[in-house]
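Bumping with the actual sequence this time:
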Amino acid sequence: MLIEERRQHVLARIQQEGRVLVSELSDSLGISRITIRKDLDDLESRGLVQRTHGGALAPQANSLLDPSLQVKERQQLREKLRIAEAAVKMVREGQCILLDSGTTTTAIARALRSFKQLTVVTNALNIAADLASTNFEVILTGGTLRKNSASLVGPLAEEMLGELHADVLFLGVDGFDPQIGITTPNVLESRVNRAMVKSSRRVVAVCDSTKFNRQSLALIVPSTAIQVVITDSGAKPETVETLKASGIEVVLV
């Protein structure tokens, strides 16, 4: 196991259990306690954990907040609708569209109803339900249900995505630091999102301007994996220029 993989494993344990102990991690991973302490110290320096005697806790910080879909639906609603309108202009009849979970991608799914024939692959139960009355081919990834986001995660979802090839992925964003990349509060969700990126010919990040220069718990992909960003006109000019300088097309709505 590589160093960063081990640290991501530790973060996943903290998110699932609320805390970790150095002794337990050492035994389960077969790694010395000194190495585990160094891992926890590194994670604390990045603001991802709170060190305690003998272990670590999840920090009480905004970067780890994972609000429900119901809460997110009330945030930046107008911006999300404009982003969805711009997103569907990138879609063509007959294409395979991949949608991750989230309220912006839900808005996109609803906007796709203007099409007649599409294949839509998603890990979001609510998006599949929204499109159930259409003539689209709707494919759910399978996996373990994350109730907070109505999304399917885990090895089953990742394995299925590895067998698919989508024309366009619309990827929702919890945090987007142009220097680091796209992040999400949940480690399992990040793994599924990463599998989506690998399965897609074109990756379009869809996010309102409040998501920029924010870091969440788990990295999905670096900025270089994104071809297009759709965001609102509230994005800072310097952020837009940084993205363009990285070769990313930026669509402002």
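The tokens above came from a reply further down the thread. The chain has a mean pLDDT of 90.
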